[in-house]
Amino acid sequence: xxxxxxxxxxxxxxxxxxxxxxxxxxxxxxxxxxxxxxxxxxxxxxxxxxxxxxxxxxxxxxxxxxxxxxxxxxxxxxxxxxxxxxxxxxxxxxxxxxxxxxxxxxxxxxxxxxxxxxxxxxxxxxxxxxxxxxxxxxxxxxxxxxxxxxxxxxxxxxxxxxxxxxxxxxxxxxxxxxxxxxxxxxxxxxxxxxxxxxxxxxxxxxxxxxxxxxxxxxxxxxxxxxxxxxxxxxxxxxxxxxxxxxxxxxxxxxxxxxxxxxxxxxxxxxxxxxxxxxxxxxxxxxxxxxxxxxxxxxxxxxxxxxxxxxxxxxxxxxxxxxxxxxxxxxxxxxxxxxxxxxxxxxxxxxxxxxxxxxxxxxxxxxxxxxxxxxxxxxxxxxxxxxxxxxxxxxxxxxxxxxxxxxxxx
Length: 409
Prior knowledge:
It is built from 14 helices and 14 strands. The chain is an alpha/beta fold. The protein folds into three domains: 11-173, Rossmann fold, CATH 3.40.50.300; 189-270, Rossmann fold (3-Layer(aba) Sandwich), CATH 3.40.50.11420; 276-408, 3-Layer(aba) Sandwich (Rossmann fold), CATH 3.40.50.11410. The radius of gyration is 24 Å and the shape is elongated. The chain starts with 10 loop residues before the first strand and ends in a 13-residue tail after the last helix.
């Protein structure tokens, strides 16, 4: 399965029937042979990725996929993997040829619509057979898009295709808003509380901490990083009053006690929840924790894979804290990465999503949609922790300016 993971570049998926020229197209765009090209249908079996630099735009990831018309039991599995990439991409290139359009293409554009994905319909192998006027009209009537004529052999309209790709990729796919830009100003001091425990990676900070530091610097502010046990002495000795304090959710209680009430306090996880999660639905869903009953099932979504420690935040600490807070016998399931759920999402009374530092906003949004559409409440690791530890209002306050945070309890 193809996931963006650490790669925040826009992802472009190439789709179409077997032998329609998808692999030739990706090789042509990338300027090198990265996908096997053959007259034998079904050569591409699994999604293939390649980084590609678009002039005057920047890097993108091209994804070559198996044919949407693949057949047989194994072929259907390949098609399923192809469709799964729709959760990852930002733009689709639908490759057709021989003036052919039918059920496979109709099914795909329906799925593209479900994912709210822009797409370009490309008539490939136009050096062999050019698209007819009637076919162009048909494509426009079905899709609302003009057909784009292309050939990987003579590279007709190559520059025009690059320009069209550049203009069609959604702006939100490559322009990232600031994490904290609306909360801090030039010269502000931001205090980052970073415990070094068994889950901390050796020799480095975790990704959300590094992202916060970079964003603070980008906003011409000052980042000060401390362990939780150094906060009291630091504030007393320096008499510095930070404009904002951000803590690891696991030491929320200690941070709440150490940071004066007139200094805004939140967590790295809640910062990410506002940045790339479905924050409004998190706000609605978090108080559901208080209504959980014996026998209810809670799903925890970790959007990355990592070594599981004996005191893992998602698998151990959050279930323990929620159980203690509610006093109920609750069943907890954990799904790591972007794996499929083992049971229907409607079996759950609450879904708790991690901060999502390793995935994109689109991936995280898609991850939550099945629960939201089914009416299952959703929340975030940091927001759930703050709620059960009694500091939820304070933790969300920096991000609900102009709204009464009491309404979210």
